[in-house]
Amino acid sequence: MNHLAHALLAGAAPERMLGSLLGDFVRGAIDPALPALRREGIAQHRAIDRYTDAHPQVVAARGLFAPPFRRYAGIVLDVWFDHLLARDFAQWSDEPLADFSGRVQRLLHGHDAALPDGLRRFSRYLHANDLPLRYRERAMIGQVLAGVGSRLSRANPLAAGLDAIAPIEPQLDAAFAAFFPDLVEFARRPERWRA
After folding, report:
1. DSSP 8-class letter at 96
2. Measuring CA to CA, which residue among 132, 99, 79, 75 is closest to residue 12?
3. In whole numbers, what is the pLDDT of the chain averaged over residues?
4. CA–CA distance, 183 with 195 (Å, rounded to integer)
5. CA 96, 11, 130 angle in degrees (round to 5)?
6. How far apart, in Å, are the Cα atoms of 24 and each of 68, 79, 117, 174?
7. Cβ–Cβ under 8 Å, residues 127 and 149
8. Beta carbons of 184 and 9 less than 8 angstroms apart
9. Structure confidence by residue, pLDDT tens digits, 12-22
């Protein structure tokens, strides 16, 4: 899953949400000096990624992509699933997406000095592009995929990711609808992911 899902699944505690957003930007053992809820957020992020990668609906959805996209299907799905979550956010949260998006941006901004460089840059990108609110826009998803592709070291087709999604969009929507409730339940069970 991508940033919107990780932030939402972290729950209401700001420190856990911050940890969930740190998950893509820290490697190795979780620093025991971090606040406990931040450590939990990082652990939850990693567990969600493992759970997502192994879920039968996600495995099947990755298999729908034809070469050369199959190699990048995990990236495309992460971003597309955040789009589907943003599109139907009211189904998953009582908080309006615009308010939630602002809360994520303020959280990152408020901890700017403590963020690793990669997350600090990403925080500025979120703010400049009004994300995660604009994840609900297809055009923004195309821009996000192109941006991810531009940061990879080898040539890749991610800039044309929406073209790869179009012919299999109904199947991807169905996979998300079957998968995401399972992920929500998993995230609500800290005994399965707590560090």
Report:
1. -
2. 99
3. 94
4. 18
5. 45
6. 25, 14, 12, 27
7. no
8. yes
9. 999 999 999 99
To which residue do tokens 């409730």 refer?
Answer: 181
Q: What pLDDT sits at residue 36?
A: 94
Judge whether 100 and 8 are in contact, CB under 8 Å: yes
Residues in the chain: 195
Q: Can you tell me the distance from the alpha carbon of 133 to that of 131, in angstroms, rounded to the nearest whole number?
A: 5
Name the residue range of residue 63's domain: 3-192
Assess contact for 186 and 192: CB atoms under 8 A.
yes
Question: pLDDT of 93-132, one tens digit each?
Answer: 999 999 999 999 999 999 999 899 999 999 999 999 999 9
CB 11 within 8 A of CB 17: yes
Structure tokens at 193: 């992911």
Task: Identify the residue whose tokens are 């490697």.
Answer: 27
Per-residue b or e along 23-45, where b marks 16 or more CB atoms closer than 10 Å to that residue's CB = bbbbeeebeeebeebbbbbbbbb
Diameter over CA atoms, the chain: 48
Quote the number of domains for the chain: 1
Residue type, 124: R
> What token pair was written down for 41?
């957020």
